[in-house]
Specification:
By secondary structure, the protein is mainly beta. It contains no helices and seven strands. It has a four-stranded antiparallel sheet, with no helix packed on it. A three-stranded antiparallel sheet has the order 5-6-7, with no helix packed on it.
Length: about 100
């Protein structure tokens, strides 16, 4: 027999990385091919790639303007390593996780 009230005793575990963005985070998206990786975009003019195994940002792309959104390619193959970033100065930039360049 399961006690219904026992579910209330389960407390979620949250991890806080030692470093991260300096200003507001505008979006977070999980990498569709690997659930241990996600990207975040921020008003600090950067996109960061996070690895949940390390609980840290493993890649950082800097831009000339605020980054309002970032998305990852959901397809495999040639584009699976690309991040599209929407920048405040009316630009869309592609970031390459393989080479580390934008």
């Amino acid at each position: 027999k399961t006690d219904v009230n026992s579910c209330n005793e389960v407390k979620p575990t949250c991890y806080e990385p030692k470093s991260g963005h300096k200003f507001n985070i505008n979006s977070i998206k999980w990498f569709p091919k690997d659930t241990g990786i996600f990207v975040s975009s921020s008003s600090d003019k950067s996109v960061q790639v996070w690895d949940t195994n390390e609980m840290a940002a493993v890649e950082k792309f800097k831009f000339s303007g605020h980054v309002y959104d970032a998305g990852l390619s959901a397809r495999g193959g040639k584009t699976s390593h690309l991040i599209a970033a929407a920048i405040s100065n009316h630009l869309v930039k592609l970031c390459d996780m393989k080479s580390g360049s934008d």
